[in-house]
């Protein structure tokens, strides 16, 4: 891939050759129809995509100035709003809901002249790691249709990996960009918390949620980050100090120190192909001149419990708005307002979402708040401090994205704990707000590729792409 990493992306190449965008969109539309069995898209925006492509083609012909994404065809996860189009978080409860405004990230994509080709399936309300909980059915992994594409942004990952679009946006609350990117051989970035506006993203856990790119190259991810990131007055948590640019950490000539976790190389709790890939990547880093520093994974056994206490608490509050009165699905059963609301929520939400609302309501309820929620908040603060300190010692942390390779349908869906443990290496970055990136790495197991993860200090998003780009380019 060293040649490929340096070569322009296919969309840029086509653009440079003068291939019309209309033609490219038509090809994608045909491919999407041919690959319908993957079920990557919930809805294809055929008409608006063709109209936009024609408009950009016309402006190009007229010699008008065009944005940096002119030529790129992008898909959106079904929880990111685009004005005039439906958006459902792949849930029955939002059936028929039409976005009254566009998410800031989408607005910026369009301003930069990207074409949006449709919305992709996800786990319901972005809760899951396998794309098996979508109201619109499961999504298949294009690299092996018997396996899950990962989740919750599995439709986005499948669409990009199958070549049904050039890139996609996903959202990541506990790993939902990085894990499906790992399962489908892509680059997937969970930006620094506050780097990308959450305005227009259907909320799951607001102190965790970030929108980010899923791409086939680090260059495309960087370009998308440049466009979608940056302060936004519509999101009070957006980071006014964020700019997407390389700092001295990413510079090739600097000696880079990388923290790694020997316990993951020694233990047997990650699958062998992942362990091997991790080891191999560390060796690569050493050959490149990086200084490797062994570190103990901070608060390891706390991470998944912390995430599930805090994210479900936030979800129970965020999802309270779906009451059958304001928008989306409304049950036709029930004599009173309360009965209608109870029935709407019972019929409109799937089992996993209901489980999380119940869990979140429980940890917030009086008598349990102090035992669970407030304790988890304190532990979160401690974890943030630990990580800040770690980044005073090393530039980056290198770790696996997932404990195993893509699993088969039904393998984990009966046991929520098994499914939740899928997130053991990804939730840390959401708990602390640090940026984290999945990058593809060759795999010696019975799957062609796996994912590794690099984390860095706040606002080092560009450096992560540069550093991982170096590692991958030296490997392939
Ligand atoms: N798998 C995690 C969960 O189920 C991550 C979800 C996400 O990042 N949206 O909550």
Please give a handful of descriptors for the protein shown.
eleven-stranded mixed β-sheet, 476 residues, disordered N terminus, binds glutamine, single chain, alpha/beta, Amidase signature (AS) enzymes, globular
Task: Give the SSE map.
Blueprint: H1 2-6, H2 10-17, H3 21-34, E1 41-44, H4 46-61, E2 73-77, H5 104-111, E3 115-120, H6 154-161, E4 167-172, H7 178-184, E5 187-190, E6 210-215, H8 218-228, E7 257-260, H9 262-266, H10 272-287, E8 291-294, H11 300-318, H12 337-348, H13 351-364, H14 369-393, E9 396-400, H15 416-420, H16 427-432, E10 436-442, E11 449-455, H17 461-475
Parallel strand pairs: 2-3, 2-4, 7-8, 7-9
Antiparallel strand pairs: 1-3, 4-6, 5-6, 5-10, 9-11, 10-11
Helix pairs in contact: 3-4, 6-7, 8-17, 11-13, 11-14
Bound molecules: glutamine.
Glutamine is lined by residues 126-129, 152, 172-176, 204, 423.
What would you note in describing this structure?
With 476 residues, the protein is α/β, with parallel strands linked by helices. It has a domain at 10-228: Alpha-Beta Complex (Amidase signature (AS) enzymes), CATH 3.90.1300. 41% of the residues lie in helices and 12% in strands. The chain has 17 helices and eleven strands. It has helices spanning 2-6, 10-17, 21-34, 46-61, 104-111, 154-161, 178-184, 218-228, 262-266, 272-287, 300-318, 337-348, 351-364, 369-393, 416-420, 427-432, 461-475; strands at residues 41-44, 73-77, 115-120, 167-172, 187-190, 210-215, 257-260, 291-294, 396-400, 436-442, 449-455. An eleven-stranded mixed beta sheet has the order 1-3-2-4-6-5-10-11-9-7-8, with helices on both faces. A hairpin with a 6-residue loop joins strand 10 and strand 11 (449-455). Helix 8 (218-228) runs antiparallel to helix 17 (461-475). The site of glutamine (GLN) has 12 residues, from loops.
